[in-house]
Amino acid sequence: MNTRAGKREQTRHNILEAARKCFNAQGYDGASTREIAKTAGVAEGTVFSHFETKEDLLISSVGEHLADAIKKGLHTMDPEWCFVDKMMHIASFRFAQIALQPGLWRVILQQLVFTPRKGAVKELMRNSGLIEAMTRLIEDAQLDGELNPEIDPAAIHKTTMALFLFTIHEHVGTENYDCEDMCATLRELLEIQMKGIWLRQPELVG
C-alpha cells in the first residue's frame, strides 16, 4: 500500500472509531457529523469524502466492528468444538464489544434493526462476512450429522440471528451488558433450539 492510500485508509479508520465513540455517547441524533469529524481530527467534508451519508457511516462503523469480532472468533476457534460452542465463541466477541459500547448497540437497534433502511441489516451482515461464516458452520454441522440436513441452512441462520437479537433486546431492557450473562442467555436458547428442532430427527417407527 502506497503512502497516500495508507494515509486515506488510516483517516477512514479514525473516522469510524470516532463515529462509534460519538454514537455510543450521544446516540444517533445527538452525534453530529461535525462532532464526529472533530473527534477524528479531520474536517467535516473529509467525513463525507469517505461516507455519503451519516447512515452509511453508521452501517460501516458497525459492519467493521462486527467483521472484526467474526475474524477473531473464526481464527481462535477449535474445529473439534460442537456447533453451539462455535456459535457461542463468535458471539462472545460481539458481546464483549457491546459491553464496552452499549450506547452504540442502542443506536443499532433504533436505526437499523427496528426502523431499517431497506436492506440495511442484510447489507451489514453480508459485508461483515457474518452470513458466509454462519452458513459454513451450519453446513459443516449438517455434514457431520450434528444438525438435521433436511433443514434449510438459511432457516437455521435466521433463527440464530433472531435469538441473538432477542438476547440483546432483553439485556438492553435491563441494562445488563455483562458479557458472561449475555452468553448464558444465548447459550440456553441455542441449546433448547438444538434439542427441540435442529437435531437430526430419528425415523418414525410404525
Automatic annotation (TrEMBL):
Name of the molecule in the record: Transcriptional regulator
Any idea where the HTH tetR-type domain is?
9-69
List GO molecular-function terms, semicolon-separated: DNA-binding transcription factor activity; transcription cis-regulatory region binding
Q: Which PROSITE patterns is this protein grouped with?
A: HTH_TETR_1, HTH_TETR_2
Q: What organism, scientifically named, is this protein from?
A: Thalassospira alkalitolerans
Query: DNA-binding region(s): which residue ranges?
Result: 32-51
Keywords, ordered alphabetically? DNA-binding
